[in-house]
Each structure stands twice: as C-alpha cells, then as structure tokens.
C-alpha cells in the first residue's frame, strides 16, 4: 500500500525541555492508526508537527509524497484535520460554516454545494443544517467538525478525539464511518479511549516521554497483558508501558517486541 504519511526523526524542544525525542511514523493507505499516550507524553505536539501547525526542531514530514516543509500549502491540502475541541465559528449556521470551509478549500458553485450536502449526509446533520453552531450540543459540534474534515475527501485524516462528547449511539455511527474511511486512506486517530482502539484501529502506537513505547496491532497490545488479567486488559498494558514505576529499559524492551 502507498505510504501516505512518512515522518522521520521528529524532535521538538521548547527551550531546554524536549517534548518529542525522535519519532518515526509511517502510515500507509488502508490503515487506521490509534495514537495514544498519557498527558504530557508529546502526543499533541507530534500531531501538530504532522499537520504543519508546529515546526519540528528536527526531522521531516512527507504527506502523500509532498514534503511539508518544502510545499506546506500543497501538503496541507492532502489531509482533513479534526483538532481537539472541534473549533468552529459559533455565529454561523452549520451549512454556512461548511460552505465557508468549501470555499477556503477552493470549491465554488455546484461543486461546493455537492460537497457540503455529502458531508452533512454522512454525518447525519440534515436536521441541524440551519442551526447556529454555538447552539449545538457538544456531540453535534463534534460531528460538524468531522464534516469539515472530510469535505474535500482527502487521502489522509488526522482526528483528535473524534468521538469526544458523543453518546453511545453516536459513537457507534462515527466509528463505523471512520472504519469505512480507513479502507482506502490513512487515518491517524488520537484518543484516550482504549475501547476505541479495539473498535476502530488496525494499528496502535503509544508514546511516553516523547518516545514510542509500543507500535503494533491492538491484538498484539492485548497480548502483553498477563493471562490472569481478565478485564480492562488494554488499560493494564497502557499503564504498564507508561507509568513511572516501569523502567525506561523495560519500556524500550516492550516496544521492540
């Protein structure tokens, strides 16, 4: 499969603090990658470097064959991004906001209307298309944010907590959509919900203290739990890989298995 995201040697320092310490990440088409880590692990910093919102101290990012540093505008056109909190213009109606995004993406006329209508349909936003964004529930604001991310049908999707604020039925619908979208594109899904990794992802990457401590399938992650752990197995493994009472050497050894 084509490698759509290629990040090599990513490092990011803020003064004397090194938030990301040399991350390599390659994501091909057809893969949904769950990107996990505890608070302060460097997850958000890495996501911002992948999407060009933060310049790495060292390292390179290539998106769909385009080097982000060399041609940032073209590279950013290859992905849809749902940031944390799904920011939008609250004084716009849902339809107006999506039309604004379509125009910003270079679409006009019938093409813009078709893309807006398709996004509204895919996210089941039809009853809310004339509603002000600021009056939507948290869950429907999240859906609106996801609608703008997929509006231009990009080969890459970068989603930060995509089901945050959704009820169980809405989570199921959005996860099904992400699974379908991941059939022929690269999806990076940042989440704190380990259940989501099992439900949606074909690969999981866990970082801690700015380094990768696990990279493999959800099944391989589950297999790291002892046989006598019968519930919340992924939670158990996540704590094992990321808590301070596990030595750095142990984490490195675990990541290489």
What would your notes on this structure say?
With 257 residues, this protein is of the alpha/beta class. The chain has 2 domains: 178 residues, Rossmann fold (3-Layer(aba) Sandwich); 67 residues, no CATH class. It contains 10 helices and 10 strands. The strands form 2 sheets. It has a 6-stranded mixed sheet with strand order 6-7-8-3-9-10, with helices on both faces. Helix 6 links the parallel strand 7 and strand 8. The longest helix is centred in the middle third of the chain and has 14 residues. It is globular.
Task: Name the descriptors.
257 residues, alpha/beta, Rossmann fold, 2 domains, 6-stranded mixed beta sheet, 4-stranded antiparallel beta sheet, 10 strands, disordered C terminus
Q: Brief overview, please?
A:
The protein contains ten helices and ten strands. Helix content is 38%, strand content 25%.
Helix-strand blueprint:
Layout: E1 3-14, E2 17-28, E3 31-36, H1 43-50, E4 58-63, E5 66-67, H2 72-76, E6 79-82, H3 94-104, H4 109-122, H5 138-150, E7 156-160, H6 168-181, E8 186-190, H7 194-200, E9 203-208, E10 211-216, H8 218-223, H9 233-242, H10 248-256
Parallel strand pairs: 3-8, 3-9, 6-7, 7-8
Antiparallel strand pairs: 1-2, 1-4, 4-5, 9-10
